[in-house]
Design brief:
single chain, alpha+beta, five-stranded antiparallel β-sheet, globular
C-alpha cells in the first residue's frame, strides 16, 4: 500500500528516526498510544501521539502506516502503552521525501 507523503507523516517519521522534532527539540522516538484525544470535530478517539497536531488515529491512519511498512509496533513505553516505531522501509521513505519535513516549526 502506497501512502502520500504528507508533512504530518514526514514529521512523525523524522522524529521516530532521529529522536528530535524537525524544529530541533529532543523528543521520544516511539509514538505511544493514547486515549481520549479530541479531533477537529470534537469527537473523541484513540491515537498514536508524537506532539500537538501530529497523531495517527488508531485503527485507521496507524493501520495504513503499519500496512505500508513505514512503522511497526515497538516495545511498550514506560507506562505500558503500545508504541509505533519507524522501520527500515520508513527510513527509506523518509529519505525519499525529506523535502516534506517542516524544519521551520
Amino acid at each position: 500500500m502506497a501512502l502520500e507523503p504528507t508533512r504530518k507523516l514526514m514529521n512523525i517519521l523524522y522524529a521516530s528516526a532521529n529522536g528530535r522534532l524537525p524544529w530541533g527539540q529532543d523528543w521520544i522516538r516511539d509514538l505511544p498510544l493514547c486515549d481520549g484525544l479530541i479531533d477537529d470535530d470534537g469527537k473523541e478517539y484513540d491515537g498514536y501521539v508524537l506532539c500537538c497536531g501530529h497523531t495517527l488515529k488508531y485503527g485507521t491512519e496507524s493501520a495504513n502506516v503499519v500496512g505500508a511498512g513505514l512503522m511497526m509496533r515497538g516495545n511498550p513505553d514506560r507506562f505500558g502503552r503500545s508504541t509505533l516505531t519507524i522501520t527500515k522501509v520508513g527510513r527509506a521513505y523518509l529519505a525519499q521525501h525529506m523535502n516534506m519535513v517542516a524544519f521551520d516549526g
